[in-house]
Amino acid sequence: MAACIGCGKLEVMIVAPPRPLPAVHVRALTAEDAPLLRRWAIAPEPFLRVEDLLACAEVPGAVTLVGLDAKGRLVAVLQSVPAGCAGDGMRSVSLLVHPGRRRRGFGRATLLAALDEPRVTGSALLAVVDRENTASLRCFEACGFVTDARATSRHYEVLVRRSGVRPKPYLATASVAR
C-alpha cells in the first residue's frame, strides 16, 4: 500500500506471485540436435547466434546442454566454456531459448537445472547480455547473477554468479541427465 500525502488517497498495489516454471529436462547436446538448432537461425539473435554455440561446443572444456520440455521438445540450449585465466575456475555461460518458447520460463528453468550440473559451474559464472534484452537480464538475475559494474559497457551488461550463491526462490521442476 502507498499513501499519497498531497491528495490523501490510498493506493493499493497487488503483486501476483511468481508463476511456477515449466518442467525442463537437461541433457548434453548431440549431433541430432544441430539441424534443429540451425532452424532457429531464421530468427537471428543480435548478440548470440546458433552457429556460434555449435562452433563453441568443440572448445576443450566446453559443456553444451539442451533443455527439453515435458513433451521432449528442444526449448533451450545452454553453454558453459572456460573463461579468464587458466585454472581460476571461471566459466562463461550463454543461453539461447527457442523463439517460440520465450517469456514462458523455459530459459530460467533450463538455467536452474544446468546450475546443478558440476561441469557447468566453476568458481564463478560470467554472462554477457545485451542491455536491451531485459528478459535475459531478469532471467540471469533471478538465478543469482549480479551485474559487475566494472565490466559493463553501454551496449552490454556483464553478470557474475559466484559459487555457492543460491538463486532467488522461484519454483522450478528440472532434472539433469547424468
List keywords for this structure.
10 strands, alpha+beta, eight-stranded mixed beta sheet, Aminopeptidase, 178 residues, 29% strand
Task: Give a description of the structure.
This protein has about 180 residues and is an alpha+beta fold. The protein has one domain: Aminopeptidase, CATH 3.40.630. Helix content is about 20%, strand content about 30%. It is built from four helices and ten strands, in the order βββααβββαβαβββ. The protein has helices at about 35-40, 50-55, 105-115, 135-140, and strands spanning about 1-5, 10, 25-30, 65-70, 75-80, 90-95, 125-130, 145, 155-160, 175. The strands form two sheets. The protein has an eight-stranded mixed sheet, sandwiched between helices. β4 and β5 (about 75-80) form a beta hairpin. The radius of gyration is 18 Å and the shape is globular. The termini are far apart. The model is unreliable at about 170-175 (pLDDT under 50).
